[in-house]
Amino acid sequence: MLRQMIRIRRFEERCVQLYSAEAIRGFLHLSIGEEAIAAGLLSVLEPDDAVVSTYREHGHALARGIPMDAVMAEMYGRTTGCSHGRGGSMHLFDGARRFYGGNAIVGGGLPVAVGLALADSLQGRNAVTVCLFGDGAVAEGEFHECLNLAALWRLPVLFACENNQYAMGTALRREHAVTDLSLRAASYGLASWPVDGMDAVAVAAAARRATESIRGGRGPCFLELRTYRFRAHSMYDADRYRDKAEIEQWKSRDPIPRLFAELRADGACGPDDQAALEAEVDAEIDAAVAAAEAAPLEPVTDLARHVYAETR
Ligand SMILES: Cc1ncc(C[n+]2csc(CCOP(=O)(O)OP(=O)(O)O)c2C)c(N)n1
Ligand SMILES: [Mg+2]
Prior knowledge:
By secondary structure, the protein is of the alpha/beta class. It is 43% helix and 10% strand.
């Protein structure tokens, strides 16, 4: 999990540089600060499980095992990207790994996840669908429709809310009458509890407990993963709505040094291990950037492909 968090952090830091250099374009939403969720939650999944994510999904895609080369090439819009260069940052996809996006619509993944879980259960597969979404999605109508139906039909969905306290510039308390989001899910009869989303070990433990319950046929669960994004909502956001002191207070709970310190205390890591991991990860990122820059763009003649079915 430490390696995974470092991969995600440094991948996204490199994306900031590439974005500033206009090597990659479009929207860019970073999960820096929130890496414990991707690393912890996805570490307990089986290959047959499904994942549905949001536009803040680079970490989820990497932790799900999509090769960094394919993610980076997608950032560049190259044909070797995991969505063949047609998706970009917000639409990472990998059907073979059951990673069903990346979605630009707030709350848009929830009905997709419920449908996937319904298909799995009708086809007798003992798979769990993990549905990641933000605190902003909890205010959407789809959230309520989907939790109700999933609970009613006891569908195998793990609803994983990344509560980073803000939906763009809107603080949680300005958007929700009840700010304890786990209570909102509990009202639909789901097993539901809050988790320290800055602690990868706590996230993994909660995810294990939830997925075991779901696999046991006891219906969907909801985790409210309390976290914080260290950076602005996106590269276009001036971030004028948050207190500097609040940001610093959350940065003091950075999940990466925290896990490293715990591993050091347990004797599982030596003093140089973090730097060694960072060097390995940097080499992986350098190779991914070089491969993406060498990869082709889709030819203009293919522009209308995938718009209509080619064969019937
Ligand atoms: C249906 C819909 N409404 C509004 C938007 C514009 N929008 C993009 S991101 C965002 C905030 C969502 O916040 P949250 O769900 O907490 O996720 P976070 O960005 O904090 O990870 C909004 C309102 C959108 N993309 N889709
Ligand atoms: Mg949010």
